[in-house]
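Final report, closing paragraph on structural work. Over the funding period we assembled a curated collection of sequence-structure pairs, and we close with a single example.
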Amino acid sequence: MELCHADGKDQEESRAHRSGRGAEIVRGSATTAVIRGTHNSARTIFKNITPSTGILGRMKPPAFIRDGAGNNPSGVNAAAWTATARPPNARAAACNVMRNKRIMTEPFCLLLEKTGAKDVYINKQPCVHAGVSMNESTAVKLAILAESAKYDVSCASSGTSRKSTPGGIGSSTGWGLCHSFAADGRCISLLKVLLSNVCEYDCAYCVNRRSNDIPRATFTARELVELTIEFYRRNYIEGLFLSSGVIASPDNTMERMVRVLKELRVRERFNGYIHMKSIPGASRELVHAAGRYADRLSVNIEIPSDANLRYLAPEKNHETVYAPMRLIQQGMDQNLEERKRFRHAPRFAPAGQSTQLIIGASNERDRDILRLSSLLYQGPKLKRVFYSGFIPVNEYDSRLPALRQAPLVRENRLYQADWLMRFYHFDADEILDEATPDLDLEIDPKLAWALRHPEFFPLDLNTAEYEHILRVPGIGRKSALRIVAARRFRKLTTEHLKKMGVVLKRARFFIAMREKTLFTIQEAGPAFVRKTLAPRQPPVNAVQLALPV
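Its predicted structure, as stored:
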């Protein structure tokens, strides 16, 4: 296959000529391209080689492409840039996971798939996109273990402030987990992987259960440390999310995971965010050692009731899960006292702890789930409870419900109810009661509560308490704070509310404003308000019209 420029060849040549940075392709084939010229010109051509040529494109020099002497001479003339792909046998699974995890760009994946390249060399140095050193064994392990880790949804912003230190790399300030959003709205990423998917347990709902015939892999501590550091240096990730199957015993698994964290913190001086899953049944010493190196620890409860957990996972029970939770909380309380006496005492799990509940694998009602979450926020003082809609990965097991897809709407409603408990001063028994043990899937929990309690409305926002204003549909925390602050200086009107961010389309049924008589829930009735505010459902037999070709 002949190597050529992309569709913008003339444009790029003209641009290089005008800037005085001439560059030319000396030779090219389906696997090799050598470009001579300045650094910027070489970069321009590399970025515009399309996948159709069989050569990688959209590379990101200068940080990753090096010259023949192994240097990175940004702006230096007469540098020769070489990219070579050597066949055969690309691992399709590794390529897919690297694309999904944004480790490799799309054109580079196309190159590997097209040429069957096993390793890619830049100036005779092995790399997997942008110079990450990775042999075939590590790439296969990454594909298997990253795929196995995707069912754990315990991802959130870090909530910690571990700062960089002299001679160290990374900082967890303002950063967090993979495919999550920080407090300032940034999308942030994490290397989310298992240490091993080998497991001694046979949980009915788990893809890594002992009886499943799936590819198994285990990272060595050094492999995972090097992988994390290399990805962090190239800005692919902001930290590490580490979990594992139970290898031999809980203590054996925890010891391996702690070894990874210790090497990252002590040997590599890594200051980025680390979230580690604690293994139920591990010893107190290992839990405390993990808390010294991890920013956040978590223990998954998985099934909300103890009876159903024992039924679906015979090797587990709630007591073995709550025991490490108590150890983590004791370590955090003890560390708080130490830091009062010694300012520079090492921190213990500064981002707190969290857990995960699987929704839909057992017959618990939403009221039972919210009650459990409320107790967890009050007792072990968890930072977050995550809800994961049950994904039927083991359809052959008769103990599991026959679901075609995960209950995503129910999962979303539980998160909304959880938000009401954490930030809007709602109790679990207020959101759901004996008459309504499950959340309404058509409307959000806050609106559902308001429709069940019309006697609470309408509220006069000029005199109502802050906690009461939070219960009005269409008014959030920021808007409520603005209302309380602004009404000290003047009487508020609907125009003021619009400027404060209040959604009047929803709130108008539940508030009373003096300058204008609104059609409130008392006059309209809950049924009319629900019909007006509930999202319209498409007809059952509705189809998407196709545009004529």
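The radius of gyration is 28 Å. The longest helix spans residues 318-341. We thank the funder for supporting this effort.
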